[in-house]
Design goal:
The complex is a heterodimer of chains A (about 90) and B (about 500). Chain A is mainly α. Chain A is built from three helices and two strands. The chains are: A mainly alpha (about 90), B alpha/beta (about 500).
Chain lengths: ~90, ~500
Amino acid sequence: MFSDTNIEEMAARMKLQLTEEEKDDFLSVLNEMLVWTEQIDKAEIEEEKSDQDILILKNIFREDVIQPSMEIQKVFQNAHDAKDGYFRVPNVLE
Amino acid sequence: MGLWEHTVLEIQKMLKAKTVSVREVTEDVLDRIEQVEHSTRAYIHICDREEILEKASAVEERIQNQNTGGLAGIPTALQDDICTEGITTTCGSKMLEKFVPPYDAEVARRLLEEDCILLGKTNLDAFGIGASTENSAFYPTNNPLNKERIPGGAGGAAAAVAAGEAFFALASDAAGAIRQSASYCGLVGLKPTYGLVSRYGLITHAPSLVQIGILTKDVQDCAAVLNGIAGYDEKDGNSVATEKIDYPEALGEGNVKGIRIGILSNDFGMEIDPKIQDGIEKAAEAFENLGAQIESIRVPHLQYGLPAHLVIAAAESSSALGRFDGIRYGYHSENAADIEELFVKTRSEGFGKAEKMWMLLGGYMLQRGKGAERYQKALKLRAQLRKDFMQIFESFDLILAPVCPGLPPEKEKQMDEFLKVYQNYTCTAAANLIGLPALSIPCDIQQGIPIGVQLIGGFFKEGLILQAAYAFEQMQGGFQRKFNCNPEKLDAQKKNNTGNEGEGRERNEI
């Protein structure tokens, strides 16, 4: 179940910072959903194979042929900041 | 009768006979948008009128030179989670409010190649998380048939088609949004088999569950549009190369004689409104009168379908929404001291309540311990449900089921009740879990509100589903006119609207 502490830990993992109001709001809703999904824990099933893919999929290989890439200008058109063909970001290292 | 009131096929016939021009049709729909959009709020973005009309004239020329695609000159709308090159694609969110895709989604490319006229992008719950369009970061969409009720998860697309603001629309369906909105707005809504229609360029929170589908006024239109968008695409890793089917031809004469239909009215693990049950019974009777073999069926693990779906959808959200970092595209928070702060501030400010909760729940499901065990169980249940359904399809050709557990909920009633909102997908989510095709078609009216019935088929059995739906629709006798083309009703609702709702475009939370 979610608690005051672990909801913050989970938010940090999701790169989110919750306001106090959000925390209060979310706790009851999330726990309500968690309790509701508990019903599947005890479901009796014959199928022991889990299903990652919903259709039977095969790996598809294609020839390693050079194809045109997206124009550089298009790649950066939505970037907040870009320079010389790179995305510019705030400091990564101190 | 305005041109906007017609179906795709009727317009195609008129264009062929040259009794109307593409420009006339397009202008009529644009006028219709001007007339009712402030009331429906179906669109997030409407393309520039002059540019649309220029395109209409160009298509006109190509029609004269007989050099056009099958949907040439038909004005259409795309839900705003389908990427369109050069046209803002917000996914109903603040995170992508200013995102202008550098490429077209494959379905958009195919429709443009077919010479469709793109009118604009329709409203949806942010990142498709919700079942009412009330979770759009911009504004809720109104159900054009009843403004007190929600229009469902693909509400913008459905409202646009139902109100005559587009002849058809494409939307997405991760839990049942297309079918639910079709049911709430009196339309035909199809979620094709997972893999039949390319999802390249679709922004989603649940990649293994979602499929692009179609909202139309009737079954013939649905078949015509499916012809335009179905087919293998190497850009979608889950696309399946199948034999090309001519769907309008598959409709045949709408004969269901000898088709075995299993009636699924229980086992959902939730109470189904007697009005809905009543609609299913009437539909079953109609199919029997048409010569189909009808029998009640049970799906042993169906009650676990929706909770398993929630576990998987939330888990996928926590991963799929991880890409929004404020660097390459999307919302960017100002004044972050370092990159970590940029991620956190961007995501905390850019995502809404529902997306945050979905990610938190999904993170829980993917962490070691109880969460991961439940996620594994949900995947096993997914396999089990597929087995259950495949066993049914050994004895039956189609399944007839409710679309929604009740009539469309009243607006704002469930806004903060996330679980309750989600439970509106009780009858539709299984098809997403398994990847089966399913269609919603109007079957009844209760308190002036349409009710849809769902036809579910085996993998890639869209032809059979459409054939049965066509027979049913013909027997109902032009259901669509009663629902979709009712300007008086809309205008009356507009007059009764005392809240000045249409004046501004106030936002939900931005």
